[in-house]
Specification:
Blueprint lengths: L4 E5 L3 H15 L4 E5 L2 H13 L4 E7 L7 H8 L7 E6 L4 H10 L4 E4 L5 H4 L1 H14 L7 E5 L4 H12 L4 E5 L4 H10 L8 E3 L5 E3 L3 H7 L10 E7 L3 H12 L4 E4 L26 H14 L3 E3 L4 E7 L2 E6 L4 E9 L3 E3 L15 E3 L13 E5 L3 H10 L5 E5 L11 H9 L3 E4 L3 E6 L6 E5 L5 E5 L2 E4 L3 E3 L48 E3 L11 H22 L1
Helix pairs in contact: 2-3, 10-11, 10-14, 12-13
The protein binds flavin-adenine dinucleotide.
Flavin-adenine dinucleotide (FAD) binds next to helix 10, helix 12 and helix 14.
Length: 553
């Protein structure tokens, strides 16, 4: 296989040779560095690479070039190599144009000239971009293969699980994919129960559960130790942040996640307001980076494993896990976040996973191609999903119970929805039934005047009110009426410390009504429901964990 290409373009010969020199120094072993002295020459080289079947990992273009600017070149190169990362080299005076380019030409990053020293100004950015490209690019596929029916909820569960855990897989749809038949023949037995999974080493799993597949895919489900300094429940942004800070500061740390690290944020198609990522980043990408960072510091991540209970014995907190085992720890960070409330309308239960999805199921976007889909909800998550799905579906219809889209949604999302010709917003409208035998075929929508209309639909994505995943903590810590967990000053009852409080200090800011049990992120009473605040709380909580542990010793 030819090495993937980094293509750099600049009309100034001095700058071009300096860029090429620095690129070769760092990347020549893994990538072929191709240079061009104008936008037109770069475009021609790009087309030739495509024709020869080579892969471009990164375009690095100077903005100021006569004839064709860097942004213009990147915009034209994008459809030829859509997965390639696109970076712009700009002078300080062109920063404004570069920021605009993030939107207009989907530029991933801009770098300022000069970039000395490259170890600080160039390589960290390019390393990141190339790592992202590698994560999305799979030249020869050597991962897990899943064979199933298009609308099978069981196949959906396996795909969704692997995608969210960043395990590469290919899906073969028996109805539409000719290769699916070949794979079935390789299995060799007639009419197996589906879905069928072929592992990397050639073994087969017949209709496995998510847990069985997790074991075979090499995910860790059993704790290596029986006792930890810190156990974190939930692997969303808050839990992952606590894990990174805990382990990097020397605590023996375990993180237990019942589905896949990333949490709600991991299902987001594009987080645009997280500091330091001016062109936004996908939730999957954020999760992948955070998991790599946590593992690097030695965090043990158990997934998929659910914490189902907790018992307290003196300074020890024992977490009870879904497989019946227990983990002991001195400090627990509860970072269990929220999950969507189930919608109770006729037809919905039997079609969940077969066209009805709670939250953004990005893996299913492709199967909605050129068909109408419905979204229920009007929060930011619903807005993001609408914009993402509009790239695939024929039409996205948002059903909003209230009389305005902007009541709960950020203005930048409202603006994009209003500008999209593929998204229709129906205010004061609700879904009243879902129809279909094997998968969703139609939904009944109730309009503001009470009339009902049966509309064809390929899928229904539900983003209605979410509730905290704290049922397992009832009777252990104080919960408020909605199930959120009060912390710090909120746990005082009539100005007195909570019942059973057995240490001689006040509860810390993020501590629940039980010493040593901390709460961060969306599940905390009064929390701000944002990625950045979840990350902030997860990081801060570790300071309180240290103080708690110091008093135990
Ligand atoms: C589609 C979507 C888009 C969003 N976009 C944005 C955005 O652009 N910007 C922004 O700032 N915010 C956004 N948000 C909100 C943001 O994602 C959340 O505020 C954030 O993820 C909260 O983090 P958390 O760690 O507290 O909880 P979560 O992300 O909810 O993570 C909690 C984790 O705990 C796990 N868990 C729960 N119970 C247990 C248990 N008993 N045992 C083990 N594990 C358990 C869950 O499986 C989950 O992985 C979005 C949310 C969604 C759904």
């Amino acid at each position: 296989m030819a090495k993937p290409v980094i293509l750099t373009v600049d009309d100034d010969p001095n700058v071009l040779s300096a860029v090429a020199r620095d690129l070769r120094r760092r990347y020549a072993e893994q990538y072929r560095i191709v240079r061009a002295d104008s936008g037109a020459a770069a475009l021609e080289a790009t087309r030739e690479l495509r024709q020869r079947g080579e892969a471009v990992a990164l375009f690095l273009a100077d903005q100021r070039m006569p004839g064709m600017s860097g942004v213009e070149f990147l915009a034209q190169a994008m459809p030829i190599f859509p997965q390639a990362r696109r970076a712009l080299l700009t002078a300080y005076a062109d920063t404004e144009a570069a920021i605009q380019a993030i939107n207009s030409a989907a530029v991933h990053y801009y770098l300022l000239k000069p970039w000395d020293p490259p170890e600080e100004q160039l390589y960290p950015v390019l390393d990141d971009l190339l790592e992202e490209w590698q994560a999305s690019h799979s030249p020869i596929f050597e991962g897990i293969r899943i064979l199933g029916h298009r609308w099978s909820p069981e196949a959906h569960a396996l795909k969704d699980f692997l995608a969210r855990n960043h395990v590469p897989y290919l899906y073969f749809d028996l109805e539409t994919d000719p290769q699916a038949r070949e794979l079935l023949e390789q299995y060799g037995q007639p009419a197996p129960t589906l879905p069928l999974v072929r592992l990397v080493d050639g073994r087969w799993l017949v209709a496995p559960t998510v847990a069985e597949l997790a074991d075979q895919a090499g995910l860790l489900r059993q704790a290596a130790q029986t006792h930890y300094d810190l156990a974190i429940v939930g692997g969303g942004p808050a839990g992952l942040a606590a894990a990174v800070y805990g382990a990097s500061e020397g605590l023996r740390t375990v993180l237990i996640e019942r589905e896949a690290p990333g949490g709600q944020a991991g299902t987001s198609s594009r987080i645009e307001n997280y500091l330091g990522f001016p062109s936004g980043l996908s939730g999957g990408d954020l999760a992948r980076r955070a998991v790599a960072q946590a593992r690097r510091f030695g965090v043990e991540i158990l997934s998929p494993v659910e914490v189902v209970g907790m018992r307290i014995d003196g300074p020890y907190r024992f977490l009870q896990l879904s497989d019946g085992s227990e983990i002991s720890t001195f400090a627990v960070v509860v970072a269990v976040g929220l999950s969507y409330r189930k919608l109770d309308v006729p037809g919905i239960e039997q079609l969940t996973g077969a066209g009805v999805y709670y939250g953004a199921s990005l893996t299913e976007a492709l199967s909605c191609q050129a068909q109408p889909v419905f979204i229920v909800g009007a929060g930011n998550s619903a807005g993001q999903a609408a914009i993402y799905l509009a790239e695939y579906a024929e039409r996205v219809i948002m059903l909003v119970r209230g009389d305005s889209l902007g009541a709960k949604m950020s203005q930048y999302l409202v603006d994009r929805i209003e500008a999209s010709p593929h998204i229709e917003v129906r205010l004061n409208s609700t879904v009243h039934a879902v129809h279909g035998s094997a998968h969703v075929e139609a939904v009944t929508v109730r309009a503001p005047d009470g009339s009902e209309e049966r509309c064809p639909a390929a899928a229904l994505f539900i983003f209605t009110g979410a509730m905290p995943c704290t049922g397992w903590l009832t009777d252990i810590v104080q919960l408020d009426r909605q199930g959120f967990i009060p912390t710090g000053p909120q746990v005082f009852e009539d100005g007195r410390r909570p019942k059973g409080w057995d240490v001689d200090r006040e509860p810390f800011l993020l501590e629940s009504s039980v010493p040593g049990i901390f709460v961060v992120g969306d599940a905390r009473a009064g929390s701000v429901k944002r990625v950045a605040s979840a990350v902030g709380e997860g990081s801060i909580a570790v300071q309180f964990v240290h103080q708690h542990l110091a008093r135990l010793r």
